[in-house]
Amino acid sequence: MNDRGALARAFLCQQIELGMPDIILLPGSRAAAACMLPAKRPERTPTPAVRTPKTLPPAAKAGEKPRLLPVSRLMAAPEKRPAVADDPMRNALVALYSAEKDCAACGLSAQRKTFVFGSGNVHAPLMIVGEAPGAEEDAQGVPFVGAAGELLTAMLGAIGLDRKKDVFIANVLKCRPPANRTPEAGEIAACKRILTAQINIMRPRVFLLLGRIAAHALLDTADSIASLRKEVRSVNGVPAFATYHPAAMLRNPEYKRPAWEDMQKLRTFLTELGAYAATN
Fold first, then answer.
1. I need a labelling partner for 127 at 20 to 30 A (CA). Which of 20, 58, 177, 265 fits?
2. Domain with 122 in it: what CATH number?
């Protein structure tokens, strides 16, 4: 057999070893090449299979952007995450909540479901203060939920703020007045010390006061919202904007336009102050 024929048969033997289909071989060539193969092929060490985690995202289709998945779904056995760095401000608020959550300084404590302390980013430069919890807030323990809360969320979103990341929200009262009645002076006085403690811990750079009760409690004035919203006031030297309460806007739609004007002024002020960067 010439060298060319031997090379051809060796090639065919290689293809058989690799398990290539017969279509690449000429008729009868597999049988002819078989004589060159050893009687018993040496066993090959199987290559360990690479296990692909079942939690990996499916391959993206052509032209489709890859989808982001939670880290927990990308890890078959997620390791224990390191503890969050100590946060003195958050710790101080937690301590304040623990000390006051069973407050019985006024009669509202007797019929409350939850003590509505506040929610949001404790480091946010903007603190929003409302009047008192309503039925939904009393049930969930979170300020500004329900219809009024949805409106507030929309108002904040319209000026580029996320209520969970960019603001902290609280009320003058931490307990719901019966049938959502107007808070009494004694109730405001009893509860204001908790709000003052929150402010002293967080030291916000700007206030947004929603409604007459919040404005009167923090600005120490009896002026109407229509008057207060015309200029920037201050709470212990911190700029404060006053506007209509979202619940009042739902009852009186004519308040929505001036409230939107107030939110635009607030956005301009926050931008000039550089407060947005502080929320990141």
1. 177
2. 3.40.470.10
